[in-house]
Amino acid sequence: MKAKEGVLDILNNVLVSELTAVHQYLLHAALCKHWGYNRLHEHFSHLAQEEVSHSSGLIDHILYLGGAPEIDHLDEVAAGKKVSDLLEADLAFERDDADVLRDGIAHCTKVGDFTTRHRLEEMIVDTEEHIDWFETQLCTIKQVGLERYLAEQIHSEKP
Does residue 5 have a known ligand-binding role? Predict the structure, then answer.
């Protein structure tokens, strides 16, 4: 199938964002594991796997549309020296990702590519869930304090 005008550029922009997210979440998982926050480690690892799945689907879809996936560069990966830095960086990242997805959905609607639009709509659901999770974590830190929040992150959710 041949891609409609501008769709491959959008998909490749989203792919760069998703691949960047994989690296960022893997880094954040490793940092949390290193700091002893097992619960956060597990959550960031889960987010990384979710982004791998999105990336794989995007690559398949780009190939289906006759394009070439752009996998040779990433956006800047945000690091941090403390958990709150990671959460704030990830919230900003997810908000930017949501904007890119919304623009892509609007473009796909305009050019009549409903298959790609549907794929992006599925992705934005996950992105909005991520935004909610990061907002909740930062709100919890404000309510109970960083030390109490981190004390809850030491133990794994799994038995």
Answer: no
Q: Residue 17: exposed, middle, or buried by beta-carbon count in 10 A (0-12, 13-18, 19+)?
A: buried
- Is 50 labelled a binding residue? yes
Q: Which domain holds residue 29?
A: 7-153
Cβ atoms of 45 and 37 within 8 Å: the answer is no
Answer yes or no: are the C-beta atoms of 118 and 78 closer than 8 Å. Answer: no
CATH at 21 = 1.20.1260.10
pLDDT tens, residue by residue, 41-87: 999 999 999 999 999 999 999 999 999 999 999 999 998 899 999 99
Residue 158 lies in a domain: no
Helix, strand or coil for residue 43? Answer: helix
Whole-model pTM: value is 0.92
Please tell me whether 46 is known to bind a ligand: yes
